[in-house]
């Protein structure tokens, strides 16, 4: 915002001059995105961008982007360029809108600043316009008038952006408090609430949630297996043994069209990835066992076995759950198995690998939750279209 009112979108302003001493608009925008990706929206200043580029003064950038608002316009549209949309809407309107929404969600996780800045500027860039035009065309093809189509488009965009903003703010809170992963969050919560939880109070269900969270273990074999099973069944809303009802939905899954070839293929890939992890763990443990046999040492193949069991449970959950969150839930289960297998080695490198795998599992669980909410939203839209 300028002192004289809103700055017009950069797309309405004159084209930048030809490159002089090697600087160009593309260079400036990419440098700004790198800064914001690393330090958040707060790190985005013209001075910082100039320093990143080795420019003499921040003023030299204005010839190319006109203002900081213009720079934000370009950054937002560059981020939107990462979201794929089909050329024209096809028959599977739900599948295509799901893919666009999930693609946008994935983009916002790469660029956490996007959700904070997107509503500060008009969405007038070519890539943002392409994405919106596709969503409008989808509902137009379904016979909706332009006003209704716009309402549905805003509903979908609001869900994605709202979830992205919540995710970004939570990650910012983690950084402020130097939390590395969920174990650090548990440690802090246990220090605050560990001695005060009581089901006799006015919030017994919330207390049970807190007790469950505090009781979770992310570094023990048996507890990690439970987390993996929960990720496969719980995040997607259905376990591996869930059965579809008459409508083809899995009870509690919020999804539809179970058992498609694509989902089965994804489930197979998840399970295969888990088996690869377990096999690698077995090979590593076997080598350690051989090396340590002369010293009385032994291997711990049970860690690999549990890792495979959790990964296969995740794959089964992906095959049995509804479309929403199934693949992400399977990845969460496989990652939990990998975490357990790494932690079971008892080596420092194994602990690091377990922490990394926990992060992967947490990210997959977040994706599953996002996809579950998206499926529920599309269920509501589909009901109104009938």
Residues in helix, %: 55-70%
Unreliable stretches (pLDDT < 50, length at least 5) are: 220-324
Output the radius of gyration.
24 Å
Mean pLDDT over the residues: 75
Q: Helix tally?
A: 15
Sheet with most strands: none
Shape: globular
The sequence of SSEs as H and E is HHHHHHHHHHHHHHH
Q: Could you tell me the number of beta strands?
A: 0
Taking the alpha carbons of the first and last residues, their distance comes to: 43 Å
Strand content: under 5%
Structural class: mainly alpha
What's the gist of this structure?
The chain is mainly α and 386 residues long.
Fold and architecture overview:
The structure is a single chain. This protein is an all-alpha fold. It is 66% helix and 0% strand. The protein has 15 helices and no strands. α5 packs parallel to α8, α12 runs antiparallel to α13 (301-320) and α12 runs parallel beside α14. The protein is globular. 35% of the residues are buried. Mean pLDDT is 75; it is low at 220-324.
């Amino acid at each position: 915002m300028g002192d004289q009112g809103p700055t017009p979108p950069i797309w309405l302003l004159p084209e930048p001059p030809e490159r002089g001493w090697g600087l160009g608009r593309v260079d400036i925008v990419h440098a700004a995105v790198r800064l914001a990706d690393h330090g958040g929206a707060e790190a985005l200043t013209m001075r910082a961008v100039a320093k990143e580029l080795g420019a003499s003064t921040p003023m030299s950038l204005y010839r190319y982007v006109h203002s900081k608002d213009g720079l934000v316009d370009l950054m937002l549209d560059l981020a939107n360029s990462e979201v794929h949309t089909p050329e024209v809407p096809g028959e599977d309107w739900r599948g295509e809108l799901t893919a666009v929404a999930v693609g946008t969600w994935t983009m916002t996780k790469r660029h956490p600043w996007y959700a904070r800045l997107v509503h500060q500027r008009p969405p007038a860039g070519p890539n943002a316009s392409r994405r919106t035009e596709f969503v409008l065309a989808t509902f137009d093809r379904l016979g909706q008038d332009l006003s209704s189509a716009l309402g549905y488009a805003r509903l979908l965009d609001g869900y994605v952006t709202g979830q992205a903003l919540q995710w970004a703010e939570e990650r910012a809170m983690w950084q402020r408090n130097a939390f590395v992963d969920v174990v650090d969050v548990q440690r802090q919560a246990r220090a605050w609430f560990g001695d005060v939880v009581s089901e006799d109070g006015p919030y017994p269900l919330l207390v049970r949630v807190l007790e469950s969270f505090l009781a979770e273990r992310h570094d023990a074999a048996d507890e990690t297996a439970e987390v993996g099973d929960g990720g496969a069944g719980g995040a997607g809303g259905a376990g591996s043994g869930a059965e579809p009802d008459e409508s083809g939905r899995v009870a509690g899954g919020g999804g539809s069209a179970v058992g498609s070839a694509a989902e089965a293929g994804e489930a197979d890939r998840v399970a295969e990835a888990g088996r690869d992890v377990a096999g690698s763990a077995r090979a590593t443990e076997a080598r350690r066992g051989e090396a340590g046999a002369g010293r009385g040492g032994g291997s711990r193949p049970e860690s690999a076995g549990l890792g495979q069991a959790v990964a296969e449970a995740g794959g089964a959950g992906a095959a049995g759950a509804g479309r929403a969150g199934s693949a992400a839930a399977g990845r969460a289960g496989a990652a939990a198995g990998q975490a357990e297998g790494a932690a079971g080695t008892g080596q420092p490198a194994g602990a690091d690998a377990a922490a990394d795998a926990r992060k992967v599992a947490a990210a997959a669980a977040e994706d599953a939750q996002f996809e579950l909410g998206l499926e529920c939203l599309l269920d509501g839209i589909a009901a109104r279209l009938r």
